[in-house]
């Protein structure tokens, strides 16, 4: 099992942790729940940022947002996405549609799904498919730039599952600006970097990269718990084997809390009825 | 952390400090005056005085009940062990608030800024619960005073009270504490509210529970760090809390969490004042208009340009001749010879035209025999100078008349015709931004201990 905690460390001061200047005003942007029913899903447009970029999790799988191509016809606007899994409409649409998340036809969504999302404005969402990762590098270069980003500056996803260096994703031509992320596995034309993509199945995979958010750290390992690194409460993401977990599946604590018992209700709700605990001694004379 | 900060927040949010009954700010206390409570010979206790901006700092002092001894010993204990790093270490001693029998137990609020010294253990943060029994008609009647507020082993806040149905404990399951916490406890209106304030996310985490506040009686013993009624000890001096207090405030009435959020920021933030100088700007307040008249010729005057002397009389010949010049005359040419004479004192003259004979020819003339005149007379082709005379003229009745001459001069000046109007703006200096004296709270204090540092995955344990 690979456990991965993404924690936001913030600044050393209180005000610095909610500072616009320090890019730490990212509270209430993570692990947000959608609203809706059946396959109609709405996000909270009030708190979404200007560019409305999401990292959306559908039952733990991280879906990729794409800005749609729009076409104008008589009395209607057509939308088209090519690689992404969902899109949202912008100001050109009606107020209801503007808060709605539109999934690709190949993305099954129904009422029983668990859907949450992070607002990742400014982090950049890069997606590519059809090779071993070379085109993802091209997209990163076009989207973010060549000199400002290294291999470790991005989080990588393979068909919505987060992958890690050596486990699902690797790199060639160094890890600095010239790096090329590769997802090849054994038998692939490309270098085997511990991935699963081969020549035969490469068209079945979709790679995405998200630029890591400012003042965030990823703690990845085989142990589920993370100790010692200070982080801001409610500003965390958690992955197990690359699958996003709900915030309710883990606790954010102080390391001094050492006693955690399962199956014990910490809440004693209401008072205890005195009569139920009255012990009466019944004295009876028994005549034998 | 500052008293001024809390005072600012009180003024901003509540208008005054009337409701602040107790405020202990332990920052800097180790260097300040420590009071003494003398409870008998060799039984002195250090006293933490109620601080401003509490409404009445003369009451509600806090007694450091952990050690009773001589004045010197208890002072050394207070400043050397109890007050460390600007905090009150409750693992060294509890603090007993004095004079609490008049506190409004059933309608009060508490704000605490504390941090764990290490591992989290159950404790009473502040408590006043005390149970008692009375036997009436062979029936044991149990009653209680006060309440306890503390932390469970799991790190959850709890409220322990005694109601009509007996003992009860409410535990807040939603609040997760950090190493350092700003929490509150509000009791009143049959409700107890426990809050933890998240200054990073600007959120209040809270739990509400219903209690029957009519069953909460006042108690004269109110301890910080312990209680007279707790399963680990039945004496308020028994230390239960391995925490350190940064500050503690007890207020009258049920204070809403939103208000306490502001008060809490005043307790932990830094109060600041700043003065901004007024800025001014020049603004056009109107215009001065000046009518401009045409200039031009307004007239003429005359000025003296000199004088002219005019001679009167008429010219006439005087009858005198005088030498004028010499003229070369060829021999044989005619010229006039003047001879003068005086008759009766009047000079007269005669003029005779003669031919010129050159004296150098010796007056010897020899005809050549030719037929021309010269040849006939024997004249030489030579010249000689002869004097010519002219007749003098004069003025008859001569006199001189001097005439004054004048010339005209243009006079220029302003005409009565308007050529235009000059409009000049008039400026006045006005205050653009008035001088301002600002004050407020800066949250530029360390937040490291307010963060979480432990992610605990439930999946493997549930």
Question: How does this model look, in words?
Answer:
The complex is a heterodimer of chains A (288) and B (462). Chain A is built from two helices and 22 strands. Chain A is mainly beta and 288 residues long. Chain A has a domain at 27-123. Mean pLDDT of chain A is 81; it is low at 267-282. With 462 residues, chain B is mainly β. Chain B folds into two domains: 3-277, Jelly Rolls; 289-413, no CATH class. In chain B, 9% of the residues lie in helices and 56% in strands. Chain B has four helices and 26 strands. In chain B, the strands form six sheets. Chain B has a nine-stranded antiparallel sheet with strand order 2-3-4-7-18-9-12-13-14, covered by helices on one side. In chain B, strands 1, 5, 6, 8, 15, 16, 17 and 19 form an eight-stranded antiparallel sheet that branches. A two-stranded antiparallel ribbon of chain B has the order 10-11. In chain B, strand 13 and strand 14 (166-171) form a beta hairpin. At the A-B interface, strand 1, strand 19, strand 20 and strand 22 of A face strand 14 and strand 26 of B.
């Amino acid at each position: 099992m690979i456990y991965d905690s993404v924690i936001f460390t913030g600044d050393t001061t209180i005000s610095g942790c909610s500072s616009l200047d320090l890019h730490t005003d990212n509270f209430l942007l993570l692990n947000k729940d959608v609203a809706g029913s059946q396959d109609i899903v709405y996000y909270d447009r009030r708190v979404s940022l200007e560019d409305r970029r999401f990292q959306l999790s559908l039952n733990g799988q991280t879906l990729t947002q794409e800005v749609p191509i729009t076409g104008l016809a008589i009395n209607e606007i057509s939308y088209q996405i090519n690689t992404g899994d969902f899109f949202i409409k912008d100001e050109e649409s009606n107020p209801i549609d503007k808060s709605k998340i539109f999934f690709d036809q190949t993305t099954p969504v129904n009422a029983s799904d668990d859907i949450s999302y992070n607002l990742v404005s400014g982090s950049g969402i890069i997606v590519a498919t059809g090779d071993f990762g070379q085109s993802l590098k091209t997209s990163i270069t076009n989207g973010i730039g060549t000199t400002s980003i290294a291999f470790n500056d991005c989080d990588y996803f393979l068909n919505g599952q987060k992958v890690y260096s050596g486990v699902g994703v690797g790199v060639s031509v160094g890890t600095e600006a010239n790096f090329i992320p590769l997802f090849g596995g054994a038998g692939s034309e490309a270098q085997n970097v511990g991935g699963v993509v081969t020549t035969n199945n490469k068209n079945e995979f979709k790679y995405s990269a998200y630029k890591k958010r400012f003042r965030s750290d990823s703690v990845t390992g085989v142990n589920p718990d993370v100790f010692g690194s200070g982080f801001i409460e409610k500003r965390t993401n958690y992955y197990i084997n690359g699958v996003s977990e709900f915030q309710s599946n883990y606790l954010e604590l102080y390391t001094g809390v050492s006693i955690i018992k399962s199956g014990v209700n910490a809440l004693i709700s209401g008072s205890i009825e005195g009569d139920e605990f009255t012990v009466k001694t019944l004295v009876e004379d028994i005549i034998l | 952390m500052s008293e001024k900060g809390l005072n600012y927040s009180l003024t901003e949010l509540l208008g005054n400090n009337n409701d602040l009954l107790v405020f202990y700010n332990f920052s800097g206390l180790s260097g300040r005056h420590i009071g003494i409570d003398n409870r008998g010979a060799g039984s002195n206790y250090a006293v933490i005085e109620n601080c401003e901006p509490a409404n009445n700092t003369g009451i509600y002092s806090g007694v450091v009940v952990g050690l009773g001894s001589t004045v010197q010993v208890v002072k050394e204990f207070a400043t050397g062990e109890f007050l460390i790093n600007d905090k009150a270490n409750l693992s060294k001693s509890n603090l007993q608030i004095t004079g609490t029998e008049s506190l409004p137990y059933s309608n009060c609020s508490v704000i605490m800024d504390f941090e764990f010294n290490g591992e989290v253990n159950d404790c009473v943060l502040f408590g006043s619960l005390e149970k008692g029994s009375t036997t009436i008609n062979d029936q044991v009647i149990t009653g209680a005073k006060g309440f306890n507020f503390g932390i469970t082993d799991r790190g959850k806040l709890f409220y322990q009270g005694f109601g009509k149905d007996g003992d009860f404990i409410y535990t807040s399951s939603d609040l997760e504490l950090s190493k350092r916490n700003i929490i509150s406890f509000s009791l009143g209106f049959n409700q107890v509210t426990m809050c933890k304030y998240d200054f990073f996310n600007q959120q209040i985490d809270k739990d509400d529970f219903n209690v029957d506040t009519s069953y909460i009686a006042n108690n004269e013993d109110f301890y910080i760090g312990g209680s007279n009624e707790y399963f680990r000890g039945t004496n308020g001096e028994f230390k239960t809390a391995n925490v350190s207090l940064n500050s503690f405030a007890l207020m009258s009435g049920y204070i809403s969490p939103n208000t306490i959020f502001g008060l809490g920021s005043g307790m932990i933030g830094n109060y600041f004042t700043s003065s901004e100088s007024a800025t001014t700007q020049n603004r056009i307040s109107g215009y001065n208009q000046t009518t401009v008249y045409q200039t031009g010729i307004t007239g003429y005057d005359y000025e003296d340009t000199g004088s002219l002397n005019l001679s009167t009389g008429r010219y006439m010949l005087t009858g005198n001749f005088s030498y004028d010049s010499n003229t070369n005359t060829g021999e044989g040419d005619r010229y006039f010879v003047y001879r003068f004479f005086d008759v009766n004192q009047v000079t007269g003259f005669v003029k005779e035209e003669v031919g010129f004979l050159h004296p150098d020819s010796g007056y010897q003339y020899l005809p050549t025999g030719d037929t021309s005149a010269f040849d006939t007379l024997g004249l030489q082709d030579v010249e000689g100078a002869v004097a010519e005379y002219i007749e003098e003229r004069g003025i008859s009745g001569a006199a001189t008349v001097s005439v004054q001459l004048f010339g005209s001069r243009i006079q220029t000046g302003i005409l009565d015709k308007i050529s235009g109007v000059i409009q000049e703006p008039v400026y006045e200096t006005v205050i653009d931004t008035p001088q301002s004296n600002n004050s407020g709270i800066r949250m530029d204090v360390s937040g490291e201990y307010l963060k979480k540092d432990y992610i605990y995955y439930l999946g493997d344990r549930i």
